[in-house]
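SAMPLE LOG
Freezer: B-3
Tube label: C17
Construct: single chain, 284 aa
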Amino acid sequence: MKDNQKEILSRVLTTGANGMVGGYVDFGTRLDRRSLDVSDLNETMSVIKRYMPKSIIHLAAETNVDRCDRDPQHAYLINSIGTYNVALAAKEVGAKMIYISTSAVFDGSKKEPYVETDKPNPLGYYGRSKFLGEVIVKEILDNYIIGRIAWVFGGGPEKDQKFVARIIEQTKKPEIDVVSGKYGSPTYGKDLVSAVKKMILENRSGVFHMSNTGAPSRVDVAREIVSITNSDTIVTEVDSSFFDNMYSEKRLDNESMISGVDIMRSWQGALKEYIEKEWSDYIK
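STRUCTURE (predicted):
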């Protein structure tokens, strides 16, 4: 890496750096919720002024969809007000802000993958709170990246508590029940960080879809995991009603996206690397 690139990356500050995605950030200043409470404006201003970053990767968020539905106030506090506080601080120090958003800003009714120019229409509190974050970033800043992602996986057995991890953990069972009719675009946290790093170095700005390429169903992902792990598990498609309250009415049928720029590899390649490298001890 060239010296000027090292200098640029050394001036990056990351919020929420202890999460599934943040763990892959290996440059700049990394802050977790103990060192930066983004819901506190005074603290956010003070901390960011202390470091004077040139770019801020804002990963701190409440991504638990069910918790957001149960506690909308908490969702807005972290995802909307927290983003507002970071955006204000970014403006104060003249930093570019990279805000990681979600496919949940759309309503899921489109039959094809969403593109960057599609009109958002979030249905649940998670999507609404994240979309409000997008609006805030656009209104406060001129220099920003909004990166929308979906179906995130990463962090290995210690940090991954989402769909991919749950399926991996069930590959030693004879059968796995997976909800049918749900489509999305998986996002490997490691690939997302690499893409963000590249976009910072290239001084890009705007709204980008940054999931891995492809639009699989939940069943497709589960069967790919079974194949990668050489498991004999049978994946059975079931209706969402099978899971009682696990899938609320606001869980979208379509969370798939296409990017206007070629920045991410296929979801299959990303998933294979993730499982073979970060779950190797588990799947032996």
